[in-house]
Specification:
The chain is mostly beta strands. Among the domains are: 2-88, Sandwich (Immunoglobulin-like), CATH 2.60.40; 293-360 and 444-518, no CATH class. It is built from 13 helices and 50 strands. The chain has a 22-stranded antiparallel barrel. A five-stranded mixed sheet has the order 10-15-16-13-14. A five-stranded mixed sheet has the order 35-36-41-40-37. Helix 8 runs antiparallel to helix 9. The longest helix is centred in the middle third of the chain and has 14 residues, at 459-472. Residues 1-12 have low confidence and may be disordered. This is TonB-dependent receptor. It is a multi-pass membrane protein. Residues 109-218 form the TonB-dependent receptor plug domain. It is found in: Cell outer membrane.
Length: 908
């Protein structure tokens, strides 16, 4: 009898449930469907073939809860161990989206207290864009700067620039910033295209939840759980770009584009799961080829001081009047010719090199990821993951940077339960052989022929001699300048030649600290965070609290930071709490958050807050209001950068550690560059204006937002908002000049005696921004869906003492129209997107250039056919299919069409 009872107990403890889930209409396997046992935590997911199996300790009958976004939920009663067949009916996804990042807790997007946009795995799969970073451009409120095929910077609500340090990007809970440079790395070590589960983007201030540098938004990317998404998936894309390049002033001929992605995931006994991902992208990159003159309205044939935005080397500029005066003293007969010209300076720039042929436009990116998960019990999971990325891309900042053979790794250990998590991770970077375009070109010019050498002459004396000779023989001044340049440039190394490449390699691979232009960034970041949700312990309100510690180990060997003797360590300590309460029969939800942060570079800590209210007027009808106080400690670059960006020219942080101790501003005062240029032109010392500075400090923003969201007849989603923000101690940039070793202002007349600096500093005036936005989504039935959004951003009172980098058009319009399945067994699908921006002003910090970015209208489209029996699909599509070249910013590349064919396996 005892044995019989034991056998019955064992049987009850080992109920085995298995089955297959399919799409009711197409009969395709339905993967990643949640199967849970009602009344318990036991559950699993269907695999890539729709199959599932589940062991349970409960006795039959057992009720299964079947659910997934995009399908109607079901309850299935299981009576025995026989395999079951389940058909799910597709349902609209409108307003079904679940978000986490808005409040660090699960809620519907419709009821979020702040503006949030989302991309799901299905969105990524159906997009005509080849990567999710391009998709982000179509989200409401988002603006981007594209430096190259592999480097896209994101922002919201203005202040758009490459390498935005005021935007936070998180990948599986890890800050995706470069440890030394402090800006997000885009997709460099982000998720592979096949491993995106969802992307949530918070517009505007968010540092009360996610810490420093969240002033312009936060993007939260979550990868696919290997327990949920199983099997082998492959994505192979073959494309072509640079079509009709000559017609579009593109120096690159039609070129192939390759993108290969693979993902494999599996689980063992619902206890252990793993996944591996890899992606390789290779293409001839777009080229930045703006010839706009940074020194005035003239071109290379009319302005002897011509310095093109994407012509590198022309930043070396000298007044040749001293050479003409010396010629006059040596030959008094030249006095009638020369003396009238000495009344004002005659600045001449060295000849620059265009980007094409100088920078390598062979872009390639490779990244690999692996993750292990172990379920310790039904409520506790251990995770270990690692991601590594390398490649060659170009990035825009104060000049263009050719980032060759960079290497970045991010590694994580995490314990995660339903109520808490403990996460620790590290980011390790190696800048590789990065070429800094502007300074390297200047040094190539100097190595080929020195600008001036009192003993042997040089380029400028040769130029002056040829200039005077041409004038003496009857040439006009413009013709004489052209003849002089041609003479002085005799034997000049041409871009791409063997001699040019030899010098370029030698200079760019010699560290800045040794007279070259190579920076050796080997910085690292270490972070540990713990968070606990007290909802089960405090049932009358929602309480979430956490602590965070971070260490930046800045290690550039004195090429990026003043770390000659040893690495610089910067510690950050944080604690946060979020409180929530539902009132008025749960129609009103109030939330508030507080965060304390301390950075070891700055004396005072920062306390920030957020408060929000969401009121549900009726089902699927919400008003929301939020106030957010956000802040940003100056980034490591804004505080401590010390990098040469040209001849006697530096990009500098705003810490007194640099300004006084390193540059000796307290002994040899700085003047604004504009006033020095006016002095050089007029010889009037009263034009000189001192640059007033102070130790850089954190910037803050107070942001208010009012929004309304509703779903009408389960078919139309409407979301509108308006916001207003006030910035204090805004960190911008200023170009200043000083004369180390002397306070004699006459030294400003000789470029070799003065230094120029592009310095980060706090503006004294308040800066205000405001804007509004609206979005509409319509489910047209039969799998047709259309979306449109409109948003605007304005800078109310620009701080004229800084380069603010607002760099955002007054409005954007994005439109999308598609069908996720039509025809026999819904094997066909398509999607089309349109993005329009008017022309707008764009300025690059560091003096790289400013001007008007032309208006653009970009159309992307794709059509897909599913080969159901082969679990495959063929997609034909294109981005910017009209091939009207456009740019996202001054000094950035012009982007044309890319047409492609993609084969996808197991993405149905």
């Amino acid at each position: 009898m005892a044995y019989f009872l034991f056998a019955i107990g064992a049987s009850h403890a080992q109920q085995h449930i298995q089955g297959v889930i399919r799409n009711q209409i197409t009969q395709e396997p339905a993967s990643a469907i949640s199967i849970k046992i009602k009344g318990s935590r036991e559950g699993t997911y269907s695999n890539d073939r729709g199959q599932f199996q589940l062991n349970s300790s409960q006795a039959f009958p057992i009720t299964l809860l079947i659910s997934a976004i995009g399908y109607d939920s079901q309850e299935i009663k299981v009576e025995n161990n026989n395999p079951i067949q389940i058909s799910l009916s597709p349902a609209t996804t409108l307003a079904q989206e679940i978000v986490v990042s808005a409040s660090r807790s699960v809620q519907t997007k419709l009821s979020s207290p702040v503006t949030i946009e989302q991309l799901s795995a299905k969105d990524v799969q159906n997009s005509p864009q080849l990567n999710y970073m391009d998709m982000i451009q179509g989200l409401r409120g988002v603006d981007v700067t594209v430096s190259s095929l592999g480097f896209t910077s994101v922002t919201t609500r203005g202040f758009n620039t490459s390498g935005n340090t005021n935007f936070t990007q998180m990948v599986d809970g890890m800050d995706n910033q470069a440890p030394g440079l402090n800006f997000p790395l885009g997709s460099v070590i982000g998720l592979t295209q096949l491993d995106v589960d969802n992307i949530e983007l918070l517009s505007g201030a968010s540092s009360a939840l996610y810490g420093s540098r969240g002033l312009n938004g936060t993007m939260i990317m979550t990868s696919k759980d290997p327990f949920k998404y199983k099997g082998l998936s492959v994505l192979v894309t073959q494309g072509v770009n640079h079509i009709n390049s000559k017609k579009n002033n593109d120096p690159v001929d039609a070129s192939p584009v390759y993108d290969y992605v693979i993902r494999y995931a599996n689980s063992i006994n619902d206890k252990f799961a793993y996944k591996v991902n890899a992606q390789y992208t290779k293409a001839n990159d777009w080229v930045a080829n703006s010839t706009v003159n940074k020194n005035g309205p003239g071109g290379p044939d009319t302005d002897p001081n011509y310095n093109g935005i994407n012509m590198y080397g022309g930043a070396t500029s000298t007044d040749i009047n001293p050479f003409m005066y010396a010629a006059m003293m040596g030959n008094p007969a030249l006095q009638p010719l020369i003396e009238p010209m000495l009344a004002k300076p005659t600045y001449v720039a060295r000849t620059g090199y265009p980007e094409f042929g100088y920078l390598d436009n062979n872009a390639n990116l490779f990244k690999v990821n692996a993750e292990l998960r172990y379920r310790i019990n039904n409520n506790l999971e251990a995770i270990a993951s690692g991601t590594f990325g390398t490649g060659n891309i170009v990035y825009t900042n104060d000049t263009r940077y050719q980032i060759n053979d960079f290497k970045v790794g991010q590694y994580r250990l995490e314990l995660k339960s339903e109520d808490w998590f403990l996460r620790t991770y590290t980011t390790q970077e190696n800048s590789g052989n990065t070429l800094i375009a502007g300074p390297t070109a200047q040094l190539i010019n100097e190595a080929w022929k020195v600008s001036y050498d009192g003993a042997t002459g040089g380029w400028y004396p040769e130029y002056t001699e040829a200039f005077l000779t041409a004038l003496a023989t009857g040439s006009s001044e413009q013709e004489a300048h052209m003849a002089a340049r041609q003479f002085a440039d005799q034997g000049r190394l041409l871009e791409g030649s063997e001699g040019f490449n030899t010098l370029k390699d030698k200079i760019s691979q010699t560290p800045i600290s040794e007279g070259g232009t190579l920076f050796l960034d080997r910085s690292s970041l270490y972070n540990t965070e713990f968070q606990y949700n007290f909802n089960k312990l405090i049932p009358f309100m929602d309480v979430i609290a956490g602590v965070n510690w971070r260490l930046y180990n800045l290690n550039s060997k004195n090429t990026l930071f003043p770390d000659k003797d040893k690495p610089i360590k910067v510690n950050e300590y944080s604690a946060y709490i979020q409180l929530g309460k539902r009132l008025l029969e749960e129609k009103l939800t109030l939330n508030t958050s507080f965060r304390y942060d301390k950075n070891s570079l700055f004396g005072k800590p920062k306390v920030t807050s957020r408060a929000s209210a969401v009121y549900q007027m009726m089902p699927q009808n919400y008003w929301r209001f939020s106030y957010q106080n956000a802040y940003s400690f100056p980034s490591n670059i804004q505080a401590l950068q010390n990098t040469m960006n040209g001849y006697n020219s530096f990009s500098s942080g705003g810490s007194n550690l640099l300004l006084n101790d390193h540059y000796h501003f307290n002994e040899f005062p700085p003047y604004t560059l504009q006033s020095v240029q006016e002095y050089q032109q007029t010889n009037d010392a009263s034009k000189l204006k001192r640059f007033e500075y102070d130790d850089i400090k954190p910037q803050t923003v107070n942001a208010f937002e009012l929004g309304y969201a509703t779903v009408i007849s389960n078919r139309i989603l409407v979301d509108v908002l308006g916001y207003y923000s006030t910035w204090k101690n805004f960190i911008g940039y200023a170009n200043v000049v000083n004369t180390p070793g002397t306070d004699d202002v006459n030294a400003f007349k000789d470029q070799s005696k003065y230094m120029t600096y592009n310095i980060a500093f706090n503006g004294g005036e308040e800066v205000n921004t405001y804007g509004y936005a609206a979005s509409f989504g319509v489910d047209l039935g039969k799998n047709f869906m259309t979306k449109v959004n409109y948003y605007s951003d304005y800078l109310k009172n620009k701080n004229n003492s800084q380069i603010n980098n607002f760099n955002t058009p007054n409005y954007h319009v994005n439109f999308e129209f598609g069908n996720s399945g039509f025809g026999k067994k819904q094997a066909w699908s398509f999607n089309t997107t349109l993005r329009h921006k008017p022309g707008y002003h764009y300025a690059v910090a560091g003096g790289l250039g400013e001007g008007t970015v032309p208006a653009s209208l970009v159309i992307d489209a794709q059509v897909t056919y599913k080969i159901l029996k082969a679990r495959s699909g063929i997609r034909i599509g294109g981005t910017n299919i009209t091939n009207k070249y456009y740019s996202t910013g001054i000094a950035n590349p012009r982007i044309g069409a890319m047409y492609y064919v993609t084969y996808a396996y197991n993405l149905l």
